[in-house]
């Protein structure tokens, strides 16, 4: 099977101690698709995403972006093609939503050229797409958890990259906010054709929103494919050691997991 | 607000601009007051006539030869301390950090005392050498696959405490008179500054300030988490090295003309950031705050009837209440 891919991990290993967190892992992030990485705790999901975004140095193997090792490329030039939103990001006290989103323009700016028409356009668009235009002047700490997460996504969007990586963007959000946020991400993927890869804990949500699912186990890709291919009773038993039944979601038709 | 020139476009908030103007005005008022006040008080009219060049001997000598060099040194040293402190605080993401964190002041004190104990002279070269060696040693020890804030803070504090103890030991080796003189220098003083000091500190500032202005851009991004700054395309460790080197150069400049004035670098950043708000590093505002605090401390030092107290005694007395007041006001208004 061949498919277009600009971002891939080629046999990467990361070891803080034994056993290795990532063990000669190979994965391609399909272009223009919404990929979700799932797996049990400590399977290396976040490490993989961080490695794909050059935040995590790799021991052996390499992460390839546009045909070249990402760790050997100029960080600024990478930041114009790939944006990452890490888990639980922090910002200085008092920073407004607009100022945060403006920070997303960093790879397109320099100390001497801090503002251009493109910057203004990208910031306005990112605020609009995330529905944060109304809250642009409020400081981050005055926002609710869901709004704050939207503000961070707006920052990543303002970076205007073809590839967007999100590390557990739904952490600490209640179910309605999780759905709202994932719908937003899905719309962005559909409307702008951005490649999105994210780590999610909730398998049912992964099944519902993903085009492509990658299941990790012990630092390796256990299996990958469409939600219906990956989210089966057999794989869940193998990956999560979870006895369960998988039925078709009566409304959306996507796989739905019911733990036994 | 956007400042647009053919080769430059700067982005800053309206509040930053108005707070900046306000601080500048305050500095101007403190400057005029400082020229007037002292053992030989001058009226506003006399001050003006001195500057416009039609005044007689004594008055002119007091202002031009004594007060002005001292005042301009205070402003320059205060600005350098203010910028350095605010840069360290932003880079280390610790609002209460100061250049002392990297051990510069402790190293400078130790170096000055060592030079005095060994040679009986060379206080300033001793201080510079001691300070810079300490800063380099602390950065080198903290380096492990890059420069990490927490390691820098911990190693810096350890080095500072060790050097302070060494300084105390060296102090006991000096005779009482020299020790008293050195104690004064170690507190930081602006007594008997001349135009050479003014020239030194302002040349240094003229060279370093453009770099500081340039560094504001990476600084206002590096103050977010490492992962975010890297994701935005910054290369953290080289940038941290450059910021540290610039801040150490600023501290060295200030110490060389005013001694290790305590507290200015520590207090200027928090005051400036609380005034500007919006999560901005406010490095240039900190410079003006630092200048005001130092100048006020020097006015206080000159106005107290006890002869020739070092200004360093007053920097904390003036800086700390301002910071506490700002914290209290914001706490009450719930904007903290």
TrEMBL record, chain A:
Q: Which InterPro entries match?
A: AAA+_ATPase, ABC_transporter-like_ATP-bd, ABC_transporter-like_CS, P-loop_NTPase, Siderophore_ABC-ATPase
> Which compartments does it reside in?
Cell membrane
Q: Which UniProt keywords apply?
A: ATP-binding, Cell membrane, Ion transport, Iron, Iron transport, Membrane, Nucleotide-binding, Transport
Topology term for the membrane: Peripheral membrane protein
Question: Which superkingdom does the taxonomy of this entry point to?
Answer: Bacteria
Family assignment from sequence similarity: Belongs to the ABC transporter superfamily.
In Swiss-Prot or TrEMBL terms, this protein is called: Iron complex transport system ATP-binding protein
Its source organism is Ruegeria halocynthiae
From TrEMBL, chain B:
Record keyword Translocase present: no
Q: Which GO terms describe its molecular function?
A: transmembrane transporter activity
Q: Which UniProt keywords apply?
A: Cell membrane, Membrane, Transmembrane, Transmembrane helix, Transport
List, in alphabetical order, the GO biological process terms annotated in this UniProt record: siderophore-iron import into cell
- A GO-annotated cellular component: plasma membrane
Where, per UniProt, does this protein localize? Cell membrane
| Record-annotated membrane-spanning stretches | 21-42, 71-89, 101-118, 124-143, 150-171, 199-220, 241-263, 283-301, 313-331
- Pfam families per the record? FecCD
Q: Name the InterPro entries for this protein.
A: ABC_BtuC-like, ABC_transptr_permease_BtuC
Report the membrane topology from the UniProt record: Multi-pass membrane protein
Any keyword Transmembrane helix? yes
Similarity comment text for this entry: Belongs to the binding-protein-dependent transport system permease family. FecCD subfamily.
* Name of the protein in question: Iron complex transport system permease protein
Source organism of the structure: Ruegeria halocynthiae
